[in-house]
Amino acid sequence: MPEIEVLKMRCKALIETELLGLALADARSIIKLNDDSSEGYLLTGKILQQMSNDKEAAEVYEQGLLKLSSSTNAPPSDQVNLLCRLPPELLVSIFTHVPFRQLSQLQLVCTDWHETVKTSPELYRTLDFRSWPTDSVSAELLQSYIKLSNGTVDKIYLSNLTPLCGAICLAVILNHNIPLKGSTVLTALADIDNDHTTPPLKLRYLYIDQSVKIVFNNWHTLGDHTWRKLATLTTFRIHAKIFQDVVQILTRGILPNLKILDCYYDARECGRSIATLPLVSPTSDDAFRDLPSIEVFNFGGLPSPVAGQRGVSDSRGVSVYVGHREFDAFLRILTNLRKFSCVDVHATSRGPDGHYFERTDFRHNTKLEEIAIIGSWLERMPTLTSSCKTLVLTTTSMTPRTAITVNDELRYDSTFVGEDGTVVTDEYANIETLDLSRCEMLIDSKLIATLARCDPALLTSLNLANCPGLFFSTPTYGADLMAKIVEHCPSLKNLNVSENSSVTDFVLFEIRQLKHLECLDISHTNVQDAGLVTLLNGTRMPGTMPQLDFSCENVIRDGVTGLIPLQKLVLNGCFGISDNLCWWIEDFGIQVESKLLTKQNRRKRRRQEFIT
Questions:
Q1: What is the number of alpha carbons within 13 Å of residue 252 lying toward its C-beta?
Q2: Cβ atoms of residues 326 and 283 within 8 Å
Q3: CA nearest 504: which of 539, 484, 534, 467?
Q4: Which residues of 565-596 are buried (b: 16+ CB within 10 A; e: fewer)?
Q5: Are the C-beta atoms of 362 and 335 separated by less than 8 Å?
Q6: Which pairs count as long-range contacts for 145-153, CB under 8 Å and 24+ apart, including other chains?
Q7: Considering only 168-182, 219-233, 298-312, 507-521, which range has the smallest mean pLDDT?
Q8: Is the pLDDT of residue 87 over 80?
Q9: Local structure of residue 276 (DSSP, 8 states)
Q10: Backbone angles phi, psi at 554, to 5 degrees
Q11: In this model, does residue 502 exceed pLDDT 60?
Q12: DSSP letter, residue 292
């Protein structure tokens, strides 16, 4: 179109003369005349960038990409033209969201992209080798990426490496002048001096697996000066097999800025135990140096995708074994610890004099706010600190500590020989979230005694999913247990009683007394439509429980009276709940999660509404 060509020429001339307002009007006119042309979007974005309006420029580029990719009139050359001619700074912003392994593929698109990827250090701030094949990573490759980053790398993930390659790669990270083709790792590490010519990396995040075990087993070979090149680390994620050696490095004060320490096991070690050698036991109280910088310590489990979150138990028999006394000594020096978790951990207590029992005491960790013990065995339930707000005790035979009155004195109901039975009265006083799901040995009396030690005004979340020892309701006594739970926890906002066959309509009638409840999970229970109607509109018919044919019209007529501010109901696997009732509940603004509500059922309802 001749008119468009004239506008392009005039727009470019106005840009050269810095009449950006008039140029912008022409560029937008080009888009209006032909929105399938890449030239209008490129000119508009360029002008907006010169006017320091980067946000609007990015929106124009995005609009152009979407339009050209969906348009049937735009030739493929126009689509490639717009992509390849985007400003370098915008390309870099886009490429930062591309997985690290695919950066090399971007260089094959065109010359401009090749140069952009090669000359943009910010693309190499995170070097993630976790998804790379085992034989595809080498020390030379790692070194080349570090050079491309101009020393700006702050995150490195070393995984799936051979022991030799892993050890040499770690030496590269430590800026150790190691010959990359040395015969053996130990010879290479022992016979060289530090390379002082290249400035050390300022890493904040390091993820390593057991492939570097040989280096940590001989950590003293490198010397403190070399290890101190990791002094900027704030997050250290390691394999359980090198935990002992990492502790030795930490207690020498080499990583003063470390805040998060994650210690995990490998998903490929299915069905095998990981025997962690005992830590060096302190000979006196000041044998270990305090580590005040560490705030999060996660021990055991498969690595979480996000640093600082507890590991995942895969229930395949993998366990981390650690000496109980030595492990307690390490926890004691974490003076500012805020979050702690142990997953699939077995703390052994067998010494030269036979088996002994000790209880982990967290009262030394005065700032601890969250404790999670999952699939683990620590001999005895730990003593908590009063600062604890979240207690997770799942998939274990341990239960919370409870107290009884003996001769007008409050004592713990279970102690062993030599242990002080004096009750720590404020142990559970500040707990806000209590997760006891899949707690094998939890029974009714133990649960009520635990809740009695909590502050009813603070406890807002309770998880009792799949607790086989609990009986929420019986045909004779009704929902006595749930009535006691409601009495001790009037401020609950989140309640999970899923996967308990004893949860019936009787339980729902007691739950409606919780005036602050926002989320309720009753998945895989024996509740029926009648009980759910009772929960929502507060109507209870004469008799032990309404035994009549409630239909959805009752809910339509009476509505939800607002007795509880319920926002979400989880009903997965509840075969006694009809689809119609779930739909009407959704109509009242309550989110319903039910796997029985399939897409086919939802389409069926929409068709019925259309017909009516």
A1: 14
A2: no
A3: 534
A4: ebeebbbeebebbbbbbbbbbeeeebebebee
A5: no
A6: 146/172, 146/201, 148/118, 148/121, 148/124, 149/121, 149/124, 149/125, 150/121, 151/198, 151/199, 151/201, 151/202, 152/121, 152/122, 152/124, 152/125, 153/124, 153/125, 153/126, 153/127, 153/201, 153/203
A7: 168-182
A8: no
A9: P
A10: -60, -40
A11: yes
A12: T
Residue written as token pair 């929902």? 479
236, 318, 319, 516 from 275: Cα distances, Å: 21, 10, 8, 47
User: Are 169 and 142 in contact, with CB atoms under 8 Å apart?
Assistant: yes
Q: What are phi and psi of 238, to 5 degrees?
A: -130, 170
Which structural domains are found in the chain, ordered by start? 2-86 (1.25.40.10), 432-612 (3.80.10)
Tokens of 430: 């500040």
Helix (H) or strand (E) holding 3: helix 2-16
Higher pLDDT, 85 or 154: 154
Both tokens of residue 207? 């993820």
pTM of the model: 0.78
Is it the case that residue 5 has pLDDT exceeding 70?
yes
pLDDT at 245: 82
19 contacts: CB under 8 Å, gap ≥ 6: none
Q: What is the pLDDT of residues 56-67, one digit of tens each?
A: 777 777 677 666
Strands of 274-275's sheet, edge to edge? 274-275, 320-323, 345-348
Residues 262, 116: Cα–Cα separation, whole Å: 35
Residue indicated by tokens 């990015």: 58
| Token pair listed for 75 | 């030739």
Average pLDDT of the segment spanning 10-19: 80
Unique residue bearing structure tokens 């029985």: 596
Max avg pLDDT among 27-31, 85-89, 133-137, 201-205? 201-205
Could you tell me the two tokens for 26? 């022409």
**Residue-level pLDDT at 544:** 38
Confidence grade of residue 487 (pLDDT, cut at 50, 70, 90): very high
| Cβ–Cβ under 8 Å, residues 582 and 598 | no
Q: What is the DSSP letter of 101?
A: G
Q: Yes or no: say if 260 and 296 are a contact pair by the CB < 8 Å rule.
A: yes
